[in-house]
Amino acid sequence: MDSLCDNVELFVDGELAPEHAEAFRQHLPDCARCQREVTELLQLKLLAHRHAENAAESAPAPLSRVMPVAFWRRPVVLVPAALAAALLVLVAVRFLLPSRPRQDVWLAQRTERLLEARLGHPGADVYRPPAPKMMGGAGNPEELPLEAMAWLEREDPHGLAAAYLVRDDKGLADQALRKLEKLAHSPELDNDRAVALLLKGQPKEALRLVDDVLEQHPRHPQALWNRGLALRELGLPLLAAKAFTEVAALKEPGWSDEAARKAEALQRAVFERRTRWMATREAGRALREATPGVTPQGFGEVPISRLFFYDAVRAAPDRERVLALLPVARELDARAGGDVLERYVHRIAEADFSRRAPFARQYSELIDKRLSSEERERFLAALLQSREDDILLGALIQMGATARHLELYEAKAAATGDVWFQLLAAQERARVESAAGRWTQATRTLLAARGLCTARGVEYRCLCIDRELSNLYIQRRMVDAARTHTERSWKSARENNEWELENDLLWNLSRIARVVNDAALTRAYLGEYLERGREDPDMRRRAHQDLASIAFRELRVDEARREIDSALATGLPLLYGGAFSLADISRLKSEPGDEAHLNRALDAARPTLGAGERAVATHMQGRFYIERDAARGRALLQRAIEEASAPGLEDDPGARRARAYSYTSLLHDAGRRGAFPEALELFARERGMELPGKCLLAVTADSERTLLLARGASGELLGHFDESRRQPLPQRLDGFVPEKLLAALRTCPRVEVLARPPLHGRAGLLPPEMAWSYLTRTSAPRASRVGPAVHLVVFDVDAELPPESSLERLNAWTPVFGPDEQRVTLSGTEATPSRVLSAMRDATEIDLVAHGIVDGYSNTSYLLLAPEQDGPELSVPRVRSASLRGAPFVVLVACHAAHTAYSFDTPFSLPASFIEAGARGVLAATVEIPDLEAGAFFNAVRERIRSGTAPALALRDERVQWLRAGRGTAWLDSVLLFE
Question: What backbone torsions phi and psi does residue 698 show, to the nearest 5 degrees?
Answer without folding.
Answer: -115, 130
